[in-house]
User: What shape does this take?
Amino acid sequence: MTAARRDNWDSSLYDDQHSFVWRAGADLVDLLHPEPGERILDLGCGTGHLTAKIAENGARVTGLDSSPSMIAQARQNFPGLHFTLADARDFRSDETFDAVFSNAALHWIHDAEAVVRCVASVLKSGGRLVLEMGARGNIRRIRQVIESVFAEAGRAPNCPWFFPSVAEYSTLLEKHGFDVRTAQTFDRWTKLEHPGRGLREWIEMFAGSYFEGIPNGDRHVLIGHIEERLRPELYVDGAWFADYRRLRIEAVNSVEGKPAVSELRTS
Ligand code: BEZ
Assistant: This one.
């Protein structure tokens, strides 16, 4: 689920406590509809669970992620599959792919144009891109409250995410030769694991860049303030929820005669 950022992931914690990320993306694989023998790239594959689901039906899948710890965990989880360490903004391949798939990864990358350029360069003409990511308005309340607690504490927020609208991402895809077939946003409030600690664990796993350089004690207090403010809205019937809004796009690469490019860069 990471495609280009610092490797600050605890991938086994991610697998143990945040499996909702890939579980929620399982029906995106149905939308991809992988066929036996197809070459598919799973961009931002994280610990490889959806890569494995794509491979179930006989597709030949490569999982790509920029996090060494995610790739190590993916290789351990699924030793029979192919995983490569690379940056989604800057990768190449000698082979072209029938499809590129991406779940919950692209909102970590602000330079979306670099990603789309790379994807276009590795997709066959007529190849499809199927993606889901956080949409404009994703985690609106979590983000607003984190940022207001930081402002009140006199700290500058360091938001790591890019949540585009349908129009913004579709325009970018069209600029790079894609035909957008479907594009939608929808709310998917997501129940977090561990009833009492769910939001705290989510913040520690996913919002770490806000807290860089802040000592543990202060961090604990800030997260406590965030929890208290969000509790009336996001703690429902004994469980924490994240106010996710998804952007889901299916697009087809319509550029003819693209040149082959060199190999996927690996570690
Ligand atoms: C998301 O899947 O939308 C998401 C996950 C972690 C942080 C921010 C967004």
Summary: The radius of gyration is 19 Å. The CA atoms of residues 128 and 193 lie 33 Å apart. The pocket of benzoic acid is lined by residues 104, 107, 134, 138-139, 161, 206, 244 (CB under 6 Å).
